[in-house]
Design brief:
- The structure is a homodimer.
- Chain A is built from 14 helices and twelve strands.
- By secondary structure, chain A is an alpha/beta fold.
- Chain A folds into three domains: 44 residues, no CATH class; 134 residues, Response regulator (Rossmann fold, 3-Layer(aba) Sandwich), CATH 3.40.50; 137 residues, Rossmann fold (3-Layer(aba) Sandwich).
- Strand 2 of chain A pairs antiparallel with strand 2 of chain B.
- Chain A binds a DNA duplex through helix 2 and helix 4.
Amino acid sequence: MKKKVTLKQIAKELDVSIATVSKALRNSKEISEDTRDKVKAFAKLYHYRPNNIALSLKNRKTKTIGILIPEIVHHFFSKVIQGIEEVANKKGYNVIIGLSNESFDKEVINMEMLANGSIDGFILSISKETLLKHDYHHFKETISQGMPIVMFDRVVNEIACDKVVVDDLRGAKKAVIKLIENKCKNIAIITTMDYVSVGKLRTQGYIEALNEFNIESNPNLILKVDDKLVSEDYIDVLEKEIMDLFLKNPDIDGVFAVNELYAITVMKVARKLGKQIPEELQIIGFTDGVLSRHAIPSLTTVSQHGNEMGAVAAELLIEKLESESEDEQVRAVVVETELIERESTK
Amino acid sequence: MKKKVTLKQIAKELDVSIATVSKALRNSKEISEDTRDKVKAFAKLYHYRPNNIALSLKNRKTKTIGILIPEIVHHFFSKVIQGIEEVANKKGYNVIIGLSNESFDKEVINMEMLANGSIDGFILSISKETLLKHDYHHFKETISQGMPIVMFDRVVNEIACDKVVVDDLRGAKKAVIKLIENKCKNIAIITTMDYVSVGKLRTQGYIEALNEFNIESNPNLILKVDDKLVSEDYIDVLEKEIMDLFLKNPDIDGVFAVNELYAITVMKVARKLGKQIPEELQIIGFTDGVLSRHAIPSLTTVSQHGNEMGAVAAELLIEKLESESEDEQVRAVVVETELIERESTK
DNA sequence: ATCCCTAACGTAAACGTTTTCGTGTTAGTA
DNA sequence: TACTAACACGAAAACGTTTACGTTAGGGAT
């Protein structure tokens, strides 16, 4: 087991100074061609690679991006990571991942672990618990220490930093308008509690769309699911609530669901009730994941372009990291949604 | 913007030496209680946190685990990451992620990027291209430099390192036996090319199960899908091949698919052919992802326990990292599969 | 007064780089 | 011959820690 070779060892072996070896490897013309070749040959032979940690310490930058997200077993978030990783890698950066599991404490701890030199900047999406508590001190502190943050999807106005969001409101609106145009008369929405910013915006889009067509929104058709506890039987609760909704409102002929799972569950309930999709009931979801694509019938959905969001976020962050200027202005990029029509609508 | 405070600054401010500050913060009894308190108060006030990079350099360990996987938008892999992250975090480790996208070159580059000091050890699953090329020099080199590797799922005999695998053969066997017991007479398998070790093993399990019941395997019922190119219309090709299989063998009444997507596609084809599931056709998949759970009808599947695999892998790695002894023996852990019965079988 | 011990602190090396600023040798020029 | 310039290289500092090993001053014992 030959340990990693260092400049010092090469220097000793070749009887030159460490500085000479370093310069030779970096093609400094200060060093004679002779020595340069000798050093390079030796380095190659022993697979010399500069130690990243030492470089990080010297340069005060790690070339590493920290990603902090609520969960990873989730199509949207993994798409975002993929997007980040791709552009990060292209620009010579690595990504390090922290999972908050929607917990405030884990979010804080993870941030502190990473903020102490391990990374150059954050890309993150806020946990539900943090959104509930309205406690953002860890973000503020991190920023005030000079470490840039880019937030995506779940963002918050209180923090001044770059943001990448989806046009949730307009995306939702587009979906509902589609249903209206498809002759749906009673459109329900399955959404989250309002503290989840994206859920709130999507609900708002739903209402605006209805208003635009002079339909007054019916509170009975708005189902806000409390998803704080993601337990095993969570799905069952969800299904029951949706079933209730349908039993109480048998004339529902269109549903807009703010995520895939809700949409699929609606399909399941519809099937149990013997409602034909899309003839008797049309459904549109949000987030274009595997479920939407492979459901039978496949699901019309509002695509969030997670990949692109990640890519944009990474670009924003890296740009800020590599720009000399201390421009304190924050940018907000809105990634357009796209309505992907499939079999669950006419 | 107050930059991160260092020992040096604290020392200067308090007019003591750096060493004194360091010792005071670490509760060395070498330092008087007076000074200790003073230093600690000051450190707390300025939110002092030791710089991880400096610590890494000094200790020659980064407390970071490198994960190298083919893709991340994939239920199984993200489950594994989740498992790894959980135990890693519990033991004070971070995880850094590299994606190979099934490409040999990206795998090698990513390894080299991470192996130069950024991490203490690897947990990885080999890319398809690497498996095809049989070129494992990067693994060997990394190991020979003293950096431990734990492989999971897609492993290879040529490399001596810890491994965590699933009992692919037995899992497949269990599934097929289930079909046999459920009175299926013509059981097909949708599998991958043989170079994917897990595909090969699962195919073997299929054959062994048949043999055990004195059924001779019919080559016409074995569909090996070439999934080298994961293009957009890949699904269409897949569907067409499966459709062909059914048209040529209309008496198929049971299918074992080596992954979720294949299984779902079989369901789609069956629907088009008007075959009732599970009455006329029973299906079992592999990997327990969202698709299996939420498909209609839901899919009976062999669960791989990705979470557990990740957790075990992390434990193996960390144990090796923290053990003084240079025990060169390699361990192989087999994580049991589990047949989860749902609606796609009787 | 001398010796020694101990408490409390400082010095310096080390981890592996890069880079600035010498410094010594050689060759060229007047 | 004497001076300068170019060349090739080395020494040392710096990044932020930890720690083995001084060093100093004071006090108690002899």
